Amino acid sequence: MTDSPTRWSVAETVERVERGEVTAAAATGAHLTRIEERRSLNAYITVMADQAREQAADIDRKRAAGESLGPLAGVPLAIKDNILVAGVPCTCGSRILRDWIPPYEATVIERLRGAGAVFVGKSNCDEFAMGSTTENSHYGPSRNPHDPERVPGGSSGGSAVAVADFQAVAGLGSDTGGSVRLPAALCGVVGLKPTYGAVSRWGLVAFASSLDQIGVFGRTVADTKAVFDVIRGHDPRDSTSMRTNGARPAPKQLTIGWPEEYYGEGLDAEIRHSLEQTANRLKDSGHKIIPVSLPNSKYTIAVYYVICTAEASSNLARYDGVKYGHRADSPDDLLDMYRHTRAEGFGDEVKRRILLGTYVLSAGYYDAYYGTAQKVRTLIADDFTRAFATVDCLLTPTSPTCAFKLGEKMDDPLAMYLSDIYTTSINLAGLPAVSVPCGTSKGGLPIGAQVIGRPFEEHLILSVAEEIEKHRR
After folding, report:
1. 146: in domain
2. Which strand (E) or helix (H) includes residue 16?
3. Among 81, 184, 224, 238, which has the minimal tally of Cβ within 10 Å of its Cβ?
4. How many structural domains compose the chain?
């Protein structure tokens, strides 16, 4: 056990708070100090210092009164700024919601609050979760703690930075096409994207509703699992939330698929080498690695950016300056106010995706683009179903490259979109996946391995991730 609360795990924090070796207030204070010292990394949009201290004081009162404490008692968490916390600004990284304060909070926040977690801040993110680097935030980019001149990944980059830089023990993000796993890989932490429907989306600001899923960051697999176990489960307020009968027991010796399409052109040689070493260690542990094919993977990026932009165009139509958020002054009429509000309130990437989505949904193009994309989405999901008939899980890279320089791809949207090439198919198929650190580049940058599982088999992929983690110690 280390002396600084900022270096403690979930279990260590809870144990020390329960024993009275440290107060929740002291653990929270240490993290708030760290946040102030490291503001240059821009991990947070809103630091919740007063609220965090109140939560911590309440935990300390409960302990002093002999009341039972929750499974996350005193654990400081970072919350992505598109997940609602009642009474705390929720900007979604956008100017249009700069001053909006939600009157209610997400189901995941209710569950974490009940478990004794402490919310230290709302973390930075790409505007409305649209991006792969956190450079699209209206509040400035977050910076990778391993090299502040490089991107942390996105869109949940702020939470990944906070966890990697000891500004939170764990954190929440949202994952629409890789937005938890990609920053986890680039920042050297664990990032879990659960099965679609495993975690309630009530209180998550919608980007693409058939793809969005709340996920978890931790410095270890155990930390990630501890938070996931609190937030998972059915919620009647979310119509996509599912009841499950429990997953099958994980075999001791697994058959792990190696998708050939994920190891071709475009993959950095150092990352491929690191994944090959990871596969060899898993084989040495008694697992079997076999090649599998996901032939429709080549269509993933095209399909994803048709579907997600179409859903974004629909979801973001509510931001019109009437009910909440920014409203532009307009001397003319209502339509003019709409135009000015959206022109001033949305950033370039959000406007680009709204325009693309409106186009693919327009009369005359709906069947050719959106309808076709949904059909190919089914083919992509069918590829995974066939693969899982012979393997227990899949092992792939999380990202084709390590963290690149800030600004390097901002003028090339297509190159930026290809950052998600290994992650988007999992969202299209609704599967669980976890990114876990598996190596380091010659330049000292983290490399992440992605483990993909059958629906609702998070326990299995987390056990594989734990083995990968163990081999690196």
Report:
1. yes
2. helix 10-19
3. 238
4. 1
